[in-house]
């Protein structure tokens, strides 16, 4: 067992945590943008239903803008779903790396304990050998 395996896995887990944060930030940006688009759609819906003569003259412009915003909202929704899946994927990767790191630490600790027991046994055998040679 490579004694540095747990340290390497720890570094990988930290990098994976940063990748997860980046994915979460991208998701937050997309969600914020989608909320802004939703607000614009709601405002335009109000204008489309308005009886104000000014809004009636701009009805065609509002309808075109409304349709574009709806298309953008659908596109952002798909992007948002993909980013949510990416965040989930990165989270699972990070969890697996942390589990492997913990297992590697346990293995390294077990090897250290085994080695110390072997050293004690060797020391006792060496002491017996010296006492037998003296006596």
Write structural notes for this entry.
The chain is mainly alpha-helical and 135 residues long. The protein has helices spanning 5-48, 53-57, 59-134. Helix 1 packs antiparallel against helix 3. Helices cover 93% and strands 0% of the residues. 4% of the residues are buried. The longest helix has 76 residues, at 59-134.
Show the helix and strand layout.
Layout lengths: L4 H44 L4 H5 L1 H76 L1
Treating each run of at least 4 consecutive H or I residues as one helix, how many helices? Answer: 3
Give the overall shape, derived from the CA principal axes. Answer: rod-shaped
Rg from alpha-carbon coordinates: 32 Å
Report how far the terminal alpha carbons are from each other: 42 Å
Helical residues, percent: over 70%
Detail the poorly predicted runs. Answer: none
Overall pLDDT: 91
Largest sheet: none
Category from helices, strands and their pairing: mainly alpha
Q: In percent terms, what proportion of residues is strand?
A: under 5%
Question: What string, H for helix and E for strand, traces the elements in order?
Answer: HHH
Question: How many beta-strand segments?
Answer: 0
